[in-house]
Specification:
elongated; alpha/beta; VC0802-like; Rossmann fold; 30 strands; 4 domains; single chain; Carbamate kinase; eight-stranded mixed sheet; six-stranded antiparallel sheet
Length: about 800
């Protein structure tokens, strides 16, 4: 009888789908009872247990108890699943098979070895047991038959690859169907016969291949592979939490993903169905209503350039190099032949265009065999210096990006490598085929989780996650956290950026979380204090394989600013309103900037000058675009701006200082503001941005604190300050008499010198037009000359605007990273 085309649906159930009696029942609920070919794996863990017992017998270890337990497990499935009148036949089969296995193990134990033929024979039992049980269960309600695949399926091995004798197998299947009538046919997966009729296997996890083989032999309508996940994911969901199930794949995409480690699909599965253009589904027997992944000749066009990321771990890089390889015809072919002869599979190849070196990725377990074979076969070339000693780097992994959308799309490879580089992941070797459907990179195995996260978000398959640690949750720091909490959902929805604040620390305690800290962090911070420890804090921020991390320093601590170099060397980005690193020791300032550049980190500090006003970035843009800075002048202290604006209204100096302190505009000790040192630090920061090697000691600063009050307590200072009002009030009155206004401003002059002093300016001058705590910066440049300078003006003090400046830097950082 000729097999009808497009008549049967082929189902393949994996071991997890028939793990116990309850799962067998679920399988029957999935099937519709008609026109079905069911290929089944061994029950979950059975093949591994048989292999372990076979090894134990060879090594002289115990195996009898494990074998008895395995038999009892299958007997229990039969008892729980089938009526008593069906037990005898199945128990008889099980008893016979387990006695046979025990005899084999006794023999293996005596001779302390076993052949591949013995291994295949033993491992093939698991599928026979599960298929017999399922066929018996289905026959209770339908015309169901059991078929041992070894009766109709013939395979051969060539160069370590399993092939199918299609002509002989199809003929045997046709003969089997003579006088056969069934609704459901249950076939053993994983096993087949050799040309001379001996049982063999299709390789570990080869039951998927069996399903595809029978789909082709039956010219099936479709192949459905049932497993324990909803389909093929964009990345391994255990490593990338945001991975999602792929709706559709082309055969070629599926093949690439399977080859590079997508565990739910065997690489050999694709070819048989692709040749017959049979569509295939990957579905979840634990969630059968889920759509699954549909695989066919062509997939639906994706909005993403890639469909998924996968990886192969436990890889070694073989390096063969030497002057004797360059320009010598057949060098590469000779090396590949050596690999073939020692049965080492080459997973990835990378060769320099100079032909001076060849790099091969192989499994770690094959390193010794490969090196010994190469050293033996290339002994002459090595001894004569034509080829250097063959070396191997273990502990590697291959990361692959796969998708038809990459074909003909410029910049995909650049995007892939840039994404890894931004996550500080070193690439050891690269490969891309002419099909452009796969880009592969060899990286250190320890980086694979972070690399998956980085590439997954880099290609917009998931939100771009950044791990944030904040040090200094005071007025500015806590306001920043409130702003992030308020805007986080919107930013995530609109820009696909997930800002995860995973650590908060001050000098007394810290709070850590694996996920983003919520809006009630204040309560948790107070109720669950942890002793602060910088090493623990930074290690936590870098944990969880989040590709990018940032430390935000909201303190005014000089000591913490000295940690920036360590932060950069650990892979952190740094954002801060703390001026000490930029205005302190110039050698350290230059060192942290150079280290950040070298390591590919970002150092952002917009809020160090004029709170949230865009001063630093504007200055950097002017310089980058080739403008020449002539002078920078401005009022850069919100506190002193308020004081001098109030002076212009005729108020008494000491009264204004008192009000400013009560309003929170000054530091707890107002002398820190009145000394002018904060202004001087900001001017140092700006000077260094221009390129001047200016230090704080180079600046002449007008100190507004009377010399007599510089060393006393704060209370005494406030009490005695009115005694010294006359000097400042006299200057203010003199300016007013001339129609001018007194200001406290800093200036970077054309010759690079810097001054911080009281100035009397005309009412028409930009410095005279300030209100409240406003700051102002005036850039005079080659493009923006003295007649029309660039002016930036706005609030220069306050927690809200400073926090907003930090927040803007954080969003700017995400745009750099992604």
């Amino acid at each position: 009888m000729e097999l009808a085309r497009n008549f049967y649906t082929v189902h393949k159930f994996g071991g997890s789908s028939v793990a116990d009696a309850s799962r067998f029942i679920e399988v029957t609920k999935i099937l519709n009872g008609s026109k079905e070919i069911i290929v089944v794996s061994a029950t979950k863990g059975t093949t591994t247990k048989l292999q372990n017992m076979l090894d134990a017998a060879r090594d002289g270890q115990s195996w009898k108890m494990d074998l008895a337990n395995l038999e009892q497990m299958h007997q229990l499935i039969v008892k729980n699943l089938l009526p008593e009148n069906k037990h005898t036949e199945l128990f008889s089969v099980l008893n016979h098979d387990f006695k046979t296995i025990a005899n084999i193990f006794d023999t293996v134990n005596q001779i302390a070895t076993y052949s591949t033929e013995i291994q295949d024979f033993v491992l093939g039992y698991g599928e026979q047991w599960s298929a017999r049980i399922l066929a018996t269960l289905l026959s209770l309600h339908n015309k169901a038959l059991y078929l041992d695949a070894t009766e109709v399926l013939y395979s051969y091995k060539s160069g370590g690859v399993v092939g199918i004798d299609w002509e002989r197998s199809e003929k045997a299947l046709q003969e089997y169907f003579v006088n056969k009538d069934f609704d459901q046919l249950v076939i053993t997966g994983f096993i087949a016969s050799t040309a001379d009729g001996k049982r063999t296997t299709l390789g570990r996890n080869g039951s998927d291949y069996s399903g595809a083989i029978f789909a082709r032999l039956f010219h099936a309508v479709e192949l459905i592979i049932w497993t324990d996940v909803d389909g093929i994911y964009t990345a391994h969901p255990a490593k990338v939490k945001s991975a999602f199930c792929i709706d559709t794949l082309s055969y070629k995409e599926a093949l690439e993903l399977a080859y590079f480690g997508a565990s739910v699909l065997h690489p050999m599965t694709i070819s048989p169905v692709a040749e017959e253009n049979i569509p295939m589904y990957i579905k979840n027997s634990y969630n059968p209503t889920a759509a699954g992944t549909y695989i066919s000749q062509s997939s639906t066009k994706s909005k993403h350039l890639i469909k998924g990321l996968t990886y192969v771990d436990d890889i070694a890089l073989l390096n063969i190099e030497g002057a004797g390889m360059a320009g010598v015809s057949g060098s590469a072919a000779r090396i590949f032949e050596i690999m073939r002869q020692c049965e080492v599979s080459v997973i990835l190849i990378s060769q320099a265009s100079s032909e001076h070196s060849l790099c091969l990725a192989i499994a770690n377990k094959s390193v010794n065999a490969a090196i010994n074979a190469l050293n033996t076969n290339l002994k002459f070339e090595i001894e004569n210096g034509q080829i250097n000693k063959v070396t191997a780097d273990t502990g590697c992994a291959i990361l692959a990006a796969v998708g038809d959308g990459m074909v003909g799309s410029p910049g995909v490879a650049g995007k892939f490598f840039e994404t890894l580089a931004k996550a500080n992941i070193n690439i050891r070797a690269i490969a891309q085929g002419a099909s452009e459907r796969n880009i592969s990179a060899v990286i250190n195995s320890k980086d694979i989780n972070k690399a998956l996260q980085a590439a997954h978000s880099g290609f917009y398959l998931s939100d771009q996650v950044i791990s944030v640690g904040l040090i200094g949750p005071g007025g500015i720091g806590s306001t920043f956290l409130d702003q992030v909490e308020e805007a986080r959902a919107t930013i995530k929805a609109k820009y696909h950026v997930d800002i995860c604040v995973r650590g908060i620390m001050n000098s007394k305690q810290m709070l850590l979380s694996d996920d983003a800290l919520s809006g009630n962090w204040r309560d948790n911070f107070a109720k669950n204090p942890i002793e602060p420890d910088m090493d623990t804090f930074t290690a936590h921020l870098l944990s969880g394989d989040v590709p990018h991390a940032v430390i935000i320093d909201c303190t005014a601590s000089t000591a913490l600013s000295k940690q920036y170099l360590n932060f950069f060397n650990q892979g952190f980005n740094v954002i801060t309103p703390n001026k000490h690193a930029n205005a302190g020791d110039i050698e350290y300032h230059n060192q942290i900037k150079a280290t950040a550049r070298k390591n590919g980190n970002h150092y952002l500090y917009e809020a160090t000058v004029c709170a949230g006003l865009p001063v630093i970035n504007t200055l950097q843009d002017l310089i980058k675009t080739g403008d020449e800075i002539i002078t920078i002048e401005g009022v850069v202290s919100g506190t002193l701006s308020f004081i001098f604006n109030e002076l212009g209204k005729g108020r008494i100096f000491s009264d204004i200082v008192k009000d400013a302190k009560e309003l929170g505009y000054t530091e707890p000790d107002p002398r820190e503001d009145l000394s002018g040192q904060d202004v001087a630090r900001k001017l140092v920061c700006l000077s260094r941005e221009i390129g001047y090697n200016v230090s704080l000691s180079d600046i002449k600063v007008t100190n507004l604190v009377p010399e007599e009050l510089r060393d006393c307590s704060v209370d005494e200072f406030m009490a005695r300050l009115p005694q010294f009002d006359d000097r400042i009030m006299g200057m203010a009155n003199e300016a007013a008499a001339k129609g001018e206004k007194l200001t406290y401003a800093g200036k970077i002059h054309a010759d690079g010198t810097v001054s911080v002093a009281i100035q009397s300016v005309a009412q028409s001058h930009p410095l005279a037009r300030l209100n409240g705590t406003d700051n102002i910066i005036i850039f005079q440049t080659k493009r923006y000359d003295a007649t029309r300078p660039m002016i930036i003006q706005g609030p220069g003090a306050g927690a809200a605007v400073t926090a907003a400046g930090i927040f803007a830097d954080l969003l700017r950082l995400t745009s750099y990273l992604y």
